[in-house]
Specification:
The chain has 168 residues and is α/β, with parallel strands linked by helices. It contains 7 helices and 7 strands; from the N terminus they run βαβαββαβαβααβα. The longest helix is centred in the last third of the chain and has 26 residues.
């Protein structure tokens, strides 16, 4: 496994799992949000789709990568096709809610850095995105992955790294 996608809703543990797997396998990881959003101190501005697509293609040209994120838009399809394995993290809903709140508190108290400005509006949006994932995004992702379903591993455990250690 040299090309890995880690997907899932907000608070599912994508970034933590990506960092752990990156350190263990010595494969660089990339956050999909950084291909989508141009980060500014005043707030994030979306890159044009063409620019996000070019940034993604530059990553896909690398020999190894771990890409983590939640997008279910069609422009991610080349990464899905190129990936050796796709981990879809879906821990219990209450765990994700707790993680979202915990992360927000750590960010506003400067205990944890964020690539974005943590605001109450963004916190609200994270709860909305989390809620919608299993009702909408999950099915959109399944459609994108459909031809390569053999690559998809759904992990419902709270600690995906321990699942990985036991099975890979």
């Amino acid at each position: 496994m040299k090309k890995i996608i880690i997907a899932g809703p907000v608070g599912s543990g994508k970034t933590t799992f990506s960092k752990q797997l990156s350190a263990k396998k010595r494969i660089p990881y990339y956050e999909l949000d950084n291909l989508i959003w141009n980060r500014h101190s005043t707030g994030d501005i979306p890159f044009p789709l063409e620019e996000s697509t070019k940034k993604l293609q530059a990553l896909l040209n690398k020999e190894t990568w771990i890409i983590e994120g939640t997008t279910t838009k069609f422009w991610i399809k080349p990464a899905i096709e190129d990936a050796d394995i796709i981990f879809l993290l879906i821990p219990p809903y209450h765990v994700r809610v707790h993680r979202i709140l915990s992360r927000y508190i750590k960010q506003i108290t400067n205990q944890e850095n964020a690539h974005y400005k943590p605001t109450l509006h963004l916190l609200k949006m994270m709860f909305i995105w989390n809620h919608h994932f299993e009702k909408k995004n999950f099915f959109e992702l399944q459609k994108l992955v459909e031809p390569t379903n053999k690559k998809l591993i759904i992990v419902k455990k709270c600690n995906p790294y321990s699942y990985y250690e036991k099975n890979y």
